[in-house]
Amino acid sequence: MIMEKYIETYLETYQSFPKLNNVKLLWHNGYWDGPINGVCNVDGNKCWYERIEDWNDKNQYPHEDDLSYGDFSPPWNRRYLVHKLSKKQYETILARHLKFNSMVGGHCDYDEDGKRTAFHYNDKITPATSNQYYQEQKREEPYDPSPESEDLIIGWFEE
Predict the structure, then answer these.
(1) What whole-number distance in Å separates Cα of residue 97 and Cα of residue 105?
(2) What is the pLDDT of residues 13-41, one digit of tens each?
(3) Which terminus of the chain has fewer CB atoms gathered within 10 Å of its CB, N or C?
(4) Where are the domains of the chain?
């Protein structure tokens, strides 16, 4: 993965950056049991967020036979590192996202309340357009949205 080096570089130090409380997810690029990475808005800036740590990476859930288990839920699920995108980076990511939305669907987008939109085929988005998108994507160069410098990292947040 492109971002592995990014994660390795900052995994032990990301908490030295400010914790952000005003992050609004716009869309996710990767998703596995929740967003992995994508574009967010922080104080009017278009930024990239990247999953840097899951709670269960370093912690263990109590055993369900443990009487103190109750309805245990961890204090956080995932933490993400956030960096500002240059105008060129954002334009590239946005173009790819809009192509995805027009050929596959807008189910990676988030509404004003932070809820992920639902998937549905319609007159313009069909199984054929979805297949075409993924065939074309296989021929594209992978895009690396890593920060162009450490100065662009603005903080981290958790969900």
Answers:
(1) 10
(2) 899 999 999 999 999 999 998 999 999 99
(3) N
(4) 4-158
